Amino acid sequence: LYGWAGQKDPVEAVNWFWRAAENGIPTAALELGICIEKGLGVQKDPAKAAVWYKVSADAGCDRAQEKLGSCYLAGVGVEKDLEEAVRWFRLAADQNYFPAMGRLGLAYQRGEGVEKDFVKAADWYKKAAGLGCHTSKTNLAMCYEHGHGVPKDMNRAIQLYREAAEAGNAQAQNNLGFCYERGLGVAQNLHEADRLYRLAAKRDNAQAQASLGSLVEHGLAGNRKDPVAAFKLYAAAARHGDMSGLFKLGRCYENGIGTERDYAAAAKWYKKAAAMKHSFAMANLGNLLLNGVGVQADAVEGVRLLHAAAELGNIKAMELISRCYESGVYLYGVAGSPPGPGAVPPPLAATNGHHPAAGLPQPMPQPQPIPVLEKDLAKARAWYDRAVAAHDRQNAIDQAVAKAAAAGVPAPDDAVAGLANLSLRSQSWR
Q1: φ, ψ dihedrals at 200, nearest 5°
Q2: pLDDT digits (tens, 9 = 90+) for 165-193
Q3: Distance of alpha carbon 112 from its chain centroid, rounded?
Q4: Which residues have a Cβ under 8 Å from the Cβ of 182 and sit 6 or more positions away?
Q5: What are the counts of helices (DSSP H) followed by strands (DSSP E) for the chain?
Q6: Rounded to an integer, what distance in angstroms lies between the CA atom of residue 352 and that of residue 331?
Q7: Ramachandran region, residue 294 (left: φ > 0; alpha: ψ -120 to 50; beta: rest)
Q8: Model's pTM, two decimal places?
Q9: Are 88 and 114 in contact (CB under 8 A)?
Q10: Could you give the 3-state DSSP secondary structure of residue 271?
Q11: Strand, helix or coil for residue 261
């Protein structure tokens, strides 16, 4: 199949796997299922692949049990069934198959097929990590970083990230890079962050691509400012669905960074990130919708997005929603005829001020303002004050991190807590 004993011949490999599987050899049934799932030497057929995985899993093959559990988890080749997925993961985990242990940890982390339980999730990650699973070691590090199921311990988190990163785990390299970039548990070191992001980005880690893009765009960590290279990194991250990459790509299009300005494209990418609750994307998209830039004006949706982003703590959204309350946001239309989003007063010249049916001079219905957001100076002031307070907190955190970096020590605990609240890092529990 892989050419280890000579020339690759997937078709011949499938023939041999088929014969062995028909003779009751569990590992052959597993390999046959893998070939059918991937279309190696045979037509791709997820349903048939699941059948062979089950043949092997029923015979006790731990790898096949984990594969079959994955099929049920994603609904590939079988009807999606989270509880059945967990059952097969547990059977494989009971045989000390660490990928299945990691899958169980994720199930408890997310509450998929079992009741959400961070303690049990961390326990399964510990078991898998102890058997050499670097993915679970990375997930366990995140547990320690955030205090999920274990006491919060940044030193332990950094140790686990470092072990997994040195073993080549891209997610650990990205997360450790983030810690070095922000001074979380280690002294801030942008050059080390850059090195780690590059290692992870080469392994196609989308979060690292987006973070590296920021360093390149702004000329940090010894990089030459290169907006075109940054744009390409953001585009790569966006292709993988990373919300930070989606937002940054939209920002490039809106501001002409590394590409031509294109407001419609900006709105498109902001919308994708906003759907993932990225507050900056929500704020920027809301602003475009309010002003009808790159999209059809929609004051109702624009205000909704600004409100939602402001409630998530986004300073720009707080400032914008404050301005909205200061002046009020209105739609215009003829009384008794509800306008569509972003409607504007119709020109009187279209009818010369006469009623088109009667042909006689008639008083024309005048456009009436329909409030989307009523003018409210008290609320305007309240949002403005919240924005100022949030800005002051951000400045205090930045100063604490910079002071710690100058002293060559990790950021203080209160700054770390603030960074955790303000950060938009989209960590992946894989």
Answers
A1: -70, -40
A2: 999 999 999 999 999 999 999 999 999 99
A3: 19
A4: 188, 401, 411, 419, 423
A5: 20, 2
A6: 23
A7: left
A8: 0.84
A9: no
A10: helix
A11: coil
